[in-house]
Specification:
Blueprint (H helix, E strand, L loop, with lengths): L1 H16 L25 H36 L6 H24 L8 E4 L6 H27 L7 H23 L2 E3 L3 H24 L2 H18 L20 H34 L23 H26 L4 H31 L10 H30 L5 H28 L11 H12 L9 H21 L2 H25 L4 H4 L2 H6 L1 H32 L1
Helix pairs in contact: 2-3, 2-6, 3-5, 3-6, 4-5, 4-8, 5-8, 6-8, 6-18, 8-11, 8-18, 9-10, 9-15, 10-12, 10-15, 11-12, 11-18, 12-18, 15-18
InterPro entries: Otopetrin
Keywords: Cell membrane, Hydrogen ion transport, Ion channel, Ion transport, Membrane, Transmembrane, Transmembrane helix, Transport
Protein name: OTOP3 protein
Length: 576
């Protein structure tokens, strides 16, 4: 009889560990302990203090690792003789191996302990974030495959580390992507401090990989030196060697496979930086959720679903912007890859932005005014995911804003009255204003409570569903019946649109329009449209190496900002 009780209790515990809504029994909770706070009067107070101490020490661990890595990378940049790129790769490989060991231990050990994951954070790791991890992870793996192939062809002048490092990177990306896909929502309740330290070590490693990607221009300099050598040969001059990059002795042979590896590496280069940034954001939410007990603050959470209702003009205008953007992007890519891009291509590209950015800014300002007019209360409940979303929006916007200010200074100091320069200047100013207005609109919308869906009775909603699905049961219908079904669906959609208040309609139209605009503004720089580096104006003003670092710092942040804005705008659309 006692054995049956024990087995029933274990099965009950197992069921509770998989459920979010059922609050756990206090006997399951592993309260945190720390030797500094062993004399606290209550268990809850000791647990709270131990949690703060664990976050502090794990944060100090990450800070020291980041400072050590920054010292190595800075030494490589300013004194490339004493500290080489291979030595930086060895340091990062050691960190990645340590992270791999901890992730494998978490997957096979920590997460499988009894009562390890009593509940999961429903806000953490949404599908679009985890999908981004997989997408950017796949492109990063392909990038490292190209890197291995490129280094293998030039093995006579490349170090063996340039083959080993990408191989470890592929294993690290695969393991980390699997870990984040399956465990990004975990609120781990065991081995708190060890888990925090492992997460912070992984965050620090991703930050250092991002920093190295921003500053490492080895292959880019090799391509620049080859182009310079070809130009000088046509001009009848002796080839010029870059003072810090003697790369003419390690040139890509005139073979198709080498050119493919080289071009593929350059094209996929921004995806690796995006992958590191996305992983850092997901890992940070996991770090905040270590030891978190959601049942302490029970919230009646109703999961909202995305429904394409109450929008007409937003999708229409957004689709027009996307189609025009794709045409501009294709024309730009054809001109840039076929030959040296002329001024007309850059004028067309920046003109598209100058038309689109003011429309996005006006929409965001109108949406912010509507938020101020409506009577929805602010959602003041603690939400680590939402707090991180706000920080990421503000931080990622600094990339485009910073690049815009650098461009403004360079253009004003040279020739602002030139047509192309004036277009780039207008583009930079409008981009700053658009980022600020969109951030205000998204952050204000994320802190609003959901609308109460009281505008449509259940009978009407059921009748509309029956009308929408009536035609699916009949496989063979005439053209007349098909037209009647389309008319019914259209009438039901118009009815649902008219039932919404004007504020909700306006917010949904604006949010959907901004979603589509941010998607096309994410696609264009992600897949190779980089006029800020290819127009040559800022590059000639700041110098190649300086502008390379500025672009590699700002461009991935800008791409990450567009992608993150899509998620925030979809949340605003759903809550409206």
């Amino acid at each position: 009889m006692s054995d049956n009780k024990v087995s029933n209790q274990k099965s009950c515990h197992h069921c509770k560990s998989r459920s979010v809504s059922v609050p756990p029994d206090t006997s399951m909770i592993h309260y945190e302990k720390f030797w500094l706070y062993r004399h606290c009067s209550s268990v809850q107070q000791r647990d709270r203090q131990a949690q703060k101490a664990g976050q502090l020490f794990s944060g100090l661990l990450a800070m020291n690792v980041v400072f050590l890595g920054c010292a190595f990378i800075s030494s490589m940049i300013f004194n490339h003789v004493a500290i080489t790129l291979a030595e930086v790769w060895i340091l990062l490989s050691i960190l990645k191996v340590l992270c791999l060991c901890w992730i494998i231990y978490y997957l096979l050990g920590t997460s499988r302990q009894p009562h390890a994951v009593l509940h999961r954070d429903s806000h953490a790791g949404p599908i679009w974030i985890r999908g981004s991890v997989l997408l950017f992870g796949c492109f990063s793996i392909l990038l490292n495959v190209f890197h291995i192939g490129y280094s293998t062809i030039l093995i006579q002048c490349k170090s063996k580390v340039e083959i080993v490092f990408p191989s470890i990177e592929i294993l690290f990306i695969c393991t980390q992507a699997f870990f984040l896909w399956h465990h990004s929502k975990d609120c781990i309740q065991v081995q708190h401090n060890f888990t925090r330290c492992g997460l912070m070590l992984t965050i620090a490693t991703n930050l250092l990989l991002w920093l190295l990607a921003v500053t490492n221009d080895t292959i880019h300099m090799e391509i620049e030196s080859q182009l310079r050598e070809v130009e000088q040969r046509f001009a009848g001059k002796a080839p010029f060697l870059h003072p810090c990059n003697d790369t003419t002795s390690c040139t890509c042979p005139n073979t198709t496979i080498c050119k493919v590896f080289q071009k593929g590496y350059i094209l996929l280069y921004p995806f690796n930086t995006e992958y590191c940034l996305v992983c850092c954001s997901v890992l940070y939410v996991m770090w905040k959720n270590v030891g978190r007990r959601i049942s302490d603050h029970p919230i009646p959470h109703t999961k909202s679903k995305f429904k394409l209702q109450g929008v007409v003009f937003g999708p229409l205008l957004g689709a027009i912007a996307v189609i025009i953007g794709i045409c501009v992007f294709m024309m730009y890519q054809i001109q840039v890859t076929a030959s040296a891009a002329n001024r007309q291509v850059f004028i067309m590209y920046y003109s598209y932005y100058i038309v689109l950015l003011p429309l996005m800014s006006v929409g965001a300002v109108i949406g912010t005014i509507i938020h101020a007019l409506e009577k929805r209360e602010l959602d003041t409940l603690k939400n680590p995911t939402r707090s991180l979303d706000v920080v990421l929006l503000m931080g990622a916007a600094l990339g485009q804003i910073g690049m815009s200010y650098f461009s403004i200074v360079a253009l004003v100091a040279t020739d602002p009255m030139d047509l192309l320069n004036s277009l780039i200047l207008s583009y930079s100013v409008l981009l700053i204003f658009q980022n600020i207005t969109q951030n205000v609109f998204i952050i204000d919308g994320l802190h609003r409570q959901h609308f109460e869906h009281t505008e449509m009775s259940p009978d009407k909603e059921q009748q509309m569903k029956e009308q929408n699905h009536e035609g699916y049961d009949q496989r063979q219908v005439s053209m007349l019946e098909l037209g009647q079904e389309i008319q019914k669906v259209s009438l039901s959609y118009i009815q649902s649109y008219s039932n919404l208040s004007w504020k909700r309609r306006a917010l949904r139209e604006i949010s959907f329009f901004l979603v589509l605009c941010n998607i096309i503004l994410w696609v264009m720089p992600t897949f190779g449209a980089h006029p800020v580096f290819e127009n040559g104006l800022e590059k000639s003003f700041y110098g190649y190496s300086t502008w390379f670092v500025i672009v590699n710092f700002g461009l991935p942040l800008g791409v990450f900002y567009r992608m993150h804005s899509v998620g925030g705008l979809l949340e605003v659309y759903i809550t409206a």
